[in-house]
Amino acid sequence: MNPVESLITEQALKSFAATPDPRFKQIMQSLVRHLHAFASEVELTEQEWFEGIRFLTDTGHMCDGFVRQEFILLSDTLGLSMLVDAINHRHVANATETTVFGPFYIDGMPERAYGENMALTPGEVALIHGRVLDTEGKPLAGVLLDVWQTAGNGMYSGQDVDQPVGNLRGRYRTDANGDFAIRTILPVCYPIPTDGPVGRMLEAAERHPWRPGHVHFMLELPGYRKLVTHLFTQDDPYLESDAVFGVKQSLQVAYEARTVHDTVSAKVGMELPFKQAYYTFVLVSE
Ligand code: BEZ
Ligand code: FE
What we know:
Protocatechuate 3,4-Dioxygenase, subunit A, binds fe (iii) ion, 28% helix, binds benzoic acid, 5-stranded mixed β-sheet, alpha+beta
């Protein structure tokens, strides 16, 4: 940076010198330093600066107060969401890994019984079951599992107004043995929304918008850290190139084709044939 340009950065930094909240001061000064370094490194033109302002304005206009959050989508597609997730959830031995929350969670979805069907739209019938343990291997009873996934058309209920309310969403609980069971349909891979500025960015970069098939989970139990994660479908073609960088090896599950019952599927009353996946979640105590 030449001296005139450095002086601008110094002045902007100094303007935050008396900020009373030390964390706010640190964040704002670091933001100024990195923003200025970025503009200098690429020698940002005035036209590019204005294009950036327009892009962010369009991103804001694309947000609604409900399911569409284009700024989160931008953060996701820049890898920022996964970086923040990694910084805030450094791995604890044995514990289940976290991944991106995504913009399609809806609070207050129906409470569902062990093995209850959450799919009100068609697809390949699947049973996801397993256990929730603590890091010592002790089963945890009464864990709330908030679950959501897309329908066969690749859209979430709420996002797609034609789907029934609560479709492919539900709040399950582990039983006294720490077991849970969810009757659903096989998740499909789907593109993140591309009808806004994030879609334009992906297109300009010749990046695809696809996410591998997955089911979202948020697990909560008092005294334990909240776990936000997904279970990804093994062998999905997009596991290596998730548009939002969310895939982790430990979160991949195989859906086995079943033509005969085991104890769990008989208890749940699954109709044969169906696909079945098993997973053990491990929560960290606070
Ligand atoms: C999702 O998995 O729901 C999602 C995550 C990030 C961006 C868009 C969708
Ligand atoms: Fe998703």
